[in-house]
């Protein structure tokens, strides 16, 4: 059985098993002794440990992979002086897709009106963490110390440093060639490390999902059902509708093929709820299964995981309209335009880790004068939505990567339409899957 199939089976098994534990817990069928044992040894014990090790093993690869791969990419790019146009196109598309996502979310929320008539007592006051001012977000892109940037996993700073280094290598003549050869070899090794870890992925995915679903409070769905469904429907519409159109119109590639190839990466994003932790899988999938050349993917994927959060923007759009409707506050057309602008910027500043989208929602609400207590209300259903929106976030990164690569002549259609290999299992090696 190919690794992709095993990962998908693990995902389904994890969800079913977790939901079963949840049901047993809630219904008290097993008595308090057995329930307590399951909670402490299985959900809070084994699953917790395996899940945490799994996430750690993904995160472990992020910094080496992004650095090495982007140095190689920048080096190849600067030979053809393509860094500028590539960066311009990528950032523009990232911002554009996010603005479309939030507009779609607002339209859906204004038509369906999930907040009208909802009367939910807030679960408690929400004390927002200070969201960083936008000027800091800009200044912080430039590292003062590359080692500190790597130690903290600061993606944008690592990107700047790697671009500079790759550019310098390509301008150095013979010494540069030696270093470039070294980095290219290192890139192979790092990708292979990702491949080795991937073999254990089904266990990690199972443990994470079983734990999450075992602990998920299901009763919230009733109270916030409409909000939940509107966010979910918009996420799906954006992923399958907007991205398909974009891919087809701008590159002529088949969306169905891309979605099929992205499935394992989407499962990782779904189970970890972190675009940043999923970078190794997204990068290897985009390069080895979708056929985007390393020189494009090494730049677009880590950048996308850091600044492109369409799914997050969708949640923020629906949540803002929902909260306004629930409190009966009219924010008007100008208010909604402000929401589009702020949520687009907020998504740039949102880190690709679980739950941060909700913190950045505070910034959006503040801009249009809506009560922050609203966040405490939508928080109840956020975990599950976070998982789905993270999968959408990384799908957006891969679509933009494919579009940009196609326009730069850096996409292999042979790989894109080839169904005969399972790259994730082999650190990228092209082999026949079973
Ligand atoms: N979990 C999301 C991500 O990593 C960010 C968020 O919306 O909270 O992409």
Bound molecules: aspartic acid
CATH class: Mainly Alpha
Radius of gyration: 22 Å
**Low-pLDDT ranges:** 427-434
Shape: globular
Strand content: under 5%
- Helix/strand order: HHHHHHHHHHHHHHHHHHH
Organism: Microbulbifer taiwanensis
Subcellular location: Cell membrane
Protein name: Dicarboxylate/amino acid:cation symporter
Transmembrane segments: 6-24, 91-112, 147-169, 189-207, 227-246, 267-286, 298-324, 331-352, 358-381
Please outline the helices and strands.
Blueprint lengths: L2 H25 L3 H49 L3 H30 L21 H6 L6 H7 L2 H16 L2 H26 L2 H15 L4 H4 L1 H27 L3 H18 L2 H14 L5 H14 L2 H17 L5 H18 L6 H12 L5 H6 L3 H26 L5 H4 L18
The chain binds aspartic acid (ASP).
Give a structural overview.
Its main location: membrane. Keywords: Cell membrane, Membrane, Transmembrane, Transmembrane helix, Transport. InterPro entries: Na-dicarboxylate_symporter, Na:dicarbo_symporter_sf. The chain is mainly alpha-helical and 434 residues long. The chain has one domain (3-416): Sodium:dicarboxylate symporter (Proton glutamate symport protein), CATH 1.10.3860.10. The protein has helices at 3-27, 31-79, 83-112, 134-139, 146-152, 155-170, 173-198, 201-215, 220-223, 225-251, 255-272, 275-288, 294-307, 310-326, 332-349, 356-367, 373-378, 382-407, 413-416. Helix 2 (31-79) runs antiparallel to helix 7, helix 3 (83-112) packs antiparallel against helix 18 (382-407) and helix 15 (332-349) runs antiparallel to helix 16. The longest helix is centred in the first third of the chain and has 49 residues, at 31-79. The radius of gyration is 22 Å and the shape is globular. It binds aspartic acid. Aspartic acid is lined by residues 273-275, 309, 312, 350, 352-357, 386, 389-390, 393.
């Amino acid at each position: 059985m190919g690794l992709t199939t095993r990962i998908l089976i693990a995902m389904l098994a994890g969800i079913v098993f977790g939901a079963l534990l949840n049901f047993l817990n809630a219904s008290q069928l097993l008595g308090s002794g057995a329930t307590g044992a399951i909670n402490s040894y299985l959900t809070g014990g084994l699953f917790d440990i395996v899940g945490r090790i799994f996430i750690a093993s993904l995160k472990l690869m992020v910094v080496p992979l992004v650095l090495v791969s982007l140095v190689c990419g920048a080096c190849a790019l600067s030979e053809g002086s393509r860094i500028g146009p590539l960066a311009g196109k990528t950032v523009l598309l990232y911002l554009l897709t996010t603005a479309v996502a939030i507009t779609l979310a607002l339209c859906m929320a204004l038509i369906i009106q999930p907040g009208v008539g909802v009367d939910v007592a807030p679960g408690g006051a929400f004390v927002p963490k200070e969201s960083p001012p936008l000027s800091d977000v800009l200044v912080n892109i430039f590292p003062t110390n590359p080692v500190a940037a790597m130690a903290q996993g600061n993606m944008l700073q690592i990107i700047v440093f790697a671009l500079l280094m790759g550019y310098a290598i390509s301008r150095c003549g013979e010494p540069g060639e030696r270093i470039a050869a070294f980095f290219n070899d290192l890139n192979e090794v790092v990708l292979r490390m990702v491949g080795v870890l991937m073999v254990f992925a089904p266990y990690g995915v199972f443990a994470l999902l079983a734990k999450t679903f075992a602990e998920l409070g299901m009763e919230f769905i009733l109270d916030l059902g409409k909000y939940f469904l509107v966010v979910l429907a918009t996420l799906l519409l954006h992923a399958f509708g907007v991205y398909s159109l974009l891919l087809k119109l701008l590159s002529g590639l088949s969306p169905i093929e891309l979605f099929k190839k992205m499935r394992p990466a989407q499962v990782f994003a779904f189970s970890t709820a972190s675009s940043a932790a999923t970078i190794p899988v997204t990068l290897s999938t985009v390069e080895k299964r979708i056929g985007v050349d390393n020189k494009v993917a090494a730049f677009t994927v880590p950048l996308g995981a850091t600044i492109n959060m369409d799914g997050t923007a969708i949640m923020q759009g629906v949540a803002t309209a929902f909260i306004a409707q629930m409190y009966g506050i009219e924010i008007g057309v100008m208010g909604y335009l402000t929401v589009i602008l702020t949520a687009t910027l907020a998504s740039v500043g949102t880190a690709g880790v679980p739950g941060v989208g909700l913190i950045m929602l505070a910034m959006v609400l503040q801009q249009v004068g809506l009560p922050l207590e609203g966040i405490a209300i939508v928080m109840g259903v956020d975990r599950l939505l976070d998982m789905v929106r993270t999968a959408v976030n990384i799908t957006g990164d891969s679509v933009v990567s494919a579009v940009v690569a196609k326009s730069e002549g850096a996409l292999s259609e042979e790989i894109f339409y080839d169904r005969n290999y399972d790259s994730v299992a082999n650190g990228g090696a092209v082999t026949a899957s079973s």
